[in-house]
Design brief:
Length: 210
C-alpha cells in the first residue's frame, strides 16, 4: 500500500480505463494477461467490481492506470453509473465464437455514450486462438462507429499488450485534451463555495454563542 501511495505522489498523470462487454467474453483474462506474463485458463466466480492498477510510461511521463473490470455485474445487462464516472477510455470486448456477444456491442456502446459521450473506445475481438480464420472475417461495427479494432487472444497473448498500450495512450490524450477539465474546475468551485459557506456559518454560530 505504501509503495502504491508513493507511486501516486510521483505520477505525472492518472487515468481510468473501463472494460465493457457480455459475460464470459474474456475481459478479466485480457487484463490479467496484460498485467502478468502468464495465463491460467480457469473460471473464478466474481461478483464485485475488480480494480487493477498499473504504472505505465507515456511520452516520458509516469502514468498511473486504473483498469476497471465489470466482474460479473454485466450479467444484468447494464452497469451502475458510477462505473462510467470519470472514465478516460473504454475497452469493449466480444467473443468471436459467440455471435450474440457481437450483436450486443450496440447496446453496450449506446450505454457508454449516454454516460461518456466523448471518451475513446476500442473494440476487441477476443478468443481468436480457437480458429485463426476468424481474422479474415469482417466485423463492421467498429468501422461504422469509426473505432479502432483489434483481433486478440487472452489465451496466447496475441495483440494483448498492443491493445492496452494503445488504450492507455488514448486515455492520456483524452484526459489532456478533453472538455472534462472544465467540469473538474466547476466541481472544485462548487466544493470551495460549499466549504466557505460551511465555515462562515460555523463562525456565525460561534459568535452567537459568545
Amino acid at each position: 500500500m505504501a509503495a502504491m501511495e508513493a507511486d501516486e505522489c510521483e505520477a505525472d498523470e492518472r487515468v481510468k480505463i473501463i472494460c465493457l462487454g457480455d459475460s464470459a467474453v474474456g475481459k478479466s483474462k485480457l487484463v490479467e494477461r496484460f498485467l502478468i506474463d502468464g495465463y491460467q485458463p480457469q473460471q473464478l466466480s466474481t461478483y464485485a467490481l475488480t480494480l487493477y492498477k498499473y504504472k505505465a510510461t507515456v511520452d516520458d511521463k509516469t502514468v498511473l492506470v486504473d483498469i476497471w473490470d465489470t466482474a460479473g455485474q454485466e450479467r444484468f445487462n447494464s452497469m451502475h453509473p458510477s462505473y462510467y464516472h470519470k472514465a478516460h477510455a473504454c475497452v469493449m470486448v466480444f467473443d468471436v465464437q459467440r455471435k450474440i456477444t457481437y450483436k450486443n456491442l450496440a447496446s453496450w456502446y449506446k450505454e457508454l455514450r449516454e454516460y461518456r459521450p466523448e471518451i475513446p473506445c476500442v473494440i476487441v475481438a477476443n478468443k481468436i486462438d480457437a480458429d485463426y480464420k476468424v481474422t479474415q472475417k469482417n466485423f463492421n461495427f467498429a468501422k461504422k462507429q469509426g473505432l479502432p479494432f483489434y483481433f486478440v487472444s487472452a489465451a496466447d497473448g496475441t495483440n494483448v499488450v498492443k491493445l492496452f498500450r494503445d488504450a492507455i495512450k488514448l486515455a492520456v490524450s483524452y484526459k489532456q485534451n478533453s472538455k472534462d477539465f472544465m467540469d473538474e474546475v466547476m466541481r472544485e468551485l462548487e466544493n470551495f463555495e460549499l466549504e466557505s459557506k460551511g465555515v462562515s456559518s460555523e463562525e456565525d454560530d460561534n459568535s452567537k454563542s459568545k
